[in-house]
Amino acid sequence: MTMPIFNISDDIDLTPAMPAQGREGGSYRRQIWQDSTENGTIIAVWKAESGIYNYPGRDLEETFVVVEGEAIYSQADETPVTIGPGTIVSIAKGVPSRLEILSPFRKLATVIPKP
C-alpha cells in the first residue's frame, strides 16, 4: 500500500482552472482528495498568477489557507483585506468573492459542495 503524502509546492498534475479577468488563463488546480460520497468534500491546491479572479456566489462552502503569495481579498460588500501566508479564509455558500493576486499565489482549499 502506498502512503498518500503530498507537497503543496509540487507543480505536478496541475490542470487549468478559472482564468484571470481579461485573460485566457492564469490559474491551475490539483485535486488532492475527494470524499467518495456524492457531492463529497474536495481538497485541492490552487495556484495563480497575478490578476483578478471574481467568483459569483457559488453553491458550495470553501475554506482555504494561503500558503504562498499575497492578495487583496473581499467578500460581497465587505472591505477588502490583504491576505498572505498563514491566512485562513472561509466563504459561505452563495457569497460572491474576489481575489486580486499581487504575487505568485498558492492555497490549500477544502470545498464542500452543497446539493
UniProtKB/TrEMBL annotation:
Domain (S)-ureidoglycine aminohydrolase cupin: 45-107
Superkingdom of source: Bacteria
InterPro entries registered for this protein in UniProt: RmlC-like_jellyroll, RmlC_Cupin_sf, UGlyAH_Cupin_dom
Name under which the protein is recorded: (S)-ureidoglycine aminohydrolase cupin domain-containing protein
